């Protein structure tokens, strides 16, 4: 198992009032992403637990892209990965952000 | 059966497209395809579901990490309370996609805890729904899993003795096998859809142990004719048949809550009698179709291809029922 801890600065806090939310399932080719609010206004923390090693760079790129798109300041995302492809990871991240924003 | 998957890819109706992110028609959406979380969030009265030990508590398996396997924040079981058409219920939902929805140390303890809470606290809802979706024990934590199954079965019967109605609902991708099949059998009533499968030993396991001549697990029509929801309901292995949708399960579970028989020595004796009669009646049957013939179903070969409405109509005349048993 590998743990990746990525830290980003977002432009601003993620909208919405929901405190926690979870999307996805730990299944083959899928992942679950737990979203929680943190006191920080602009920091976005993404912690990833995966059994598939060697894809650090891809995770970094996908998460950086997500931070740019969603501006998830004040959010901690904890991912349990079941071997999700980058597009599925991005889908889960955007889905989680939408859930927290209450859309 | 081979048409099962295709028939489930039901597209959402136009009414659902009106509201922003509500892309899916929740009422008509397939139960079979939904996740456990989706089930608990959409089966009940809106906003009524409250989760115990939610994912943010991170009550995860203490064992999976040792095997280099990822954990899930709810260990594949969601427990809580909710309201179903005006009735307060406790609910547990297994996530069939995570490790096959298996019984393990934490997921088992969540089920046992919920059932024991119902048993011991008269102020809690007097109904427990088990939305089963599991292949049985999680092999990586087999000892804890087997114990969990035994504890869950005991807890179900103890809760029933205390006057709690326990309803099992089966219609997910993993079905209800192994410990989940055993658990279902201890409940007050079983709800099943066409897609739902109930058994103890799964088709692949039978094939591995007895050979492909005994049971071909890749023959989906054969598998469903034996363990599938329609056969189970026709023979009385399940009590109420649900259409594969949220509306279908809501309706069927509501009916199960009303119809569930009390748990007593009398009902156990009736159940024993019913099972003995069934074993005798169908003993000579080689195939599921033979059993349906024995039930005097007019065109038994047509059962697997008919739609749910026709099947429900047929059940009124030919399904085995069990008013005083279970």
Q: Topology of this protein?
A:
The complex is a heterodimer of chains A (103) and B (326).
Chain A: E1 2-9, E2 20-23, E3 31-37, E4 43-50, H1 56-70, E5 75-81, H2 86-101
Parallel strand pairs in A: 4-5
Antiparallel strand pairs in A: 1-4, 2-3, 3-5
Chain B: H1 4-8, H2 36-42, E1 50-52, E2 77-84, E3 87-94, H3 105-120, E4 127-132, H4 142-161, E5 165-170, H5 179-186, E6 189-193, H6 203-210, H7 220-227, H8 229-235, E7 240-242, H9 246-259, H10 265-281, H11 288-294, H12 308-318
Parallel strand pairs in B: 3-4, 4-5, 5-6, 6-7
Antiparallel strand pairs in B: 1-2, 2-3
Helix pairs in contact in B: 3-4, 4-5, 7-8
CATH homologous superfamily descriptor of chain B: 2-enoyl-CoA Hydratase, Chain A, domain 1
Question: Can you tell me the number of structural domains of chain A?
Answer: 1
List SSEs of chain B in N-to-C order.
HHEEEHEHEHEHHHEHHHH
Q: Estimate the mean pLDDT confidence of chain B.
A: 90
Distance between the termini of chain B: 28 Å
């Amino acid at each position: 198992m590998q743990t990746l801890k990525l830290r980003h600065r977002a432009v601003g806090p993620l909208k919405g009032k929901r405190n926690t939310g979870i999307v996805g399932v730990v299944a083959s080719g899928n992942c679950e992403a737990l979203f929680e609010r943190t006191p920080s206004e602009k920091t976005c923390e993404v912690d990833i637990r995966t059994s598939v090693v060697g894809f650090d760079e891809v995770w970094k790129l996908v998460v950086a892209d997500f931070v740019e798109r969603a501006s998830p300041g004040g959010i901690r995302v904890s991912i349990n990965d079941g071997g999700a492809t980058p597009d599925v990871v991005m889908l889960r991240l955007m889905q989680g952000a939408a859930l927290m924003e209450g859309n | 059966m081979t048409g099962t998957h295709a028939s489930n890819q039901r597209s959402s109706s136009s009414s659902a497209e009106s509201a922003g992110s509500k892309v899916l028609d929740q009422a008509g959406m397939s139960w079979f395809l939904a996740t456990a979380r989706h089930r608990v969030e959409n089966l009940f009265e809106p906003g009524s579901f409250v989760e115990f030990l939610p994912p943010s508590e991170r009550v995860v398996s203490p064992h999976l990490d040792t095997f280099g396997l990822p954990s899930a924040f709810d260990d594949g079981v969601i427990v809580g309370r909710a309201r179903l058409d005006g009735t307060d219920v406790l609910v547990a939902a297994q996530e069939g996609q995570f490790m096959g929805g298996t019984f393990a140390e934490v997921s088992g303890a969540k089920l046992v805890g919920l059932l024991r809470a119902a048993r011991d606290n008269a102020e809690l809802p007097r109904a427990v729904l088990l939305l089963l979706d599991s292949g049985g024990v999680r092999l990586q934590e087999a000892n804890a899993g087997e114990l969990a199954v035994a504890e869950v079965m005991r807890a179900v019967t103890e809760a029933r003795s205390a006057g709690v109605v326990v309803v099992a609902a089966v219609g997910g991708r993993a079905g209800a096998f192994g410990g989940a099949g055993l658990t279902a059998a201890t409940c007050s009533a079983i709800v099943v859809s066409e897609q739902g499968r109930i058994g103890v030993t799964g088709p692949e396991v039978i094939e591995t142990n007895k050979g492909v001549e005994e049971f071909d697990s890749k023959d989906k029509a054969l598998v469903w004719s034996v363990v599938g929801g329609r056969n189970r309901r026709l023979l009385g292995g399940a009590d109420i048949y649900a259409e594969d949708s949220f509306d279908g399960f809501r309706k069927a579970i509501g009916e199960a809550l009303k119809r569930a028989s009390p748990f007593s020595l009398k009902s156990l004796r009736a159940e024993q009698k019913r099972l003995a009669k069934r074993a005798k009646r169908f003993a000579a049957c080689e195939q599921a179709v033979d059993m349906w013939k024995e039930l005097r179903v007019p065109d038994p070969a047509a059962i697997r291809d008919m739609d749910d409405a026709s099947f429900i109509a047929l059940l009124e005349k030919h399904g085995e029922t069990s008013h005083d048993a279970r």
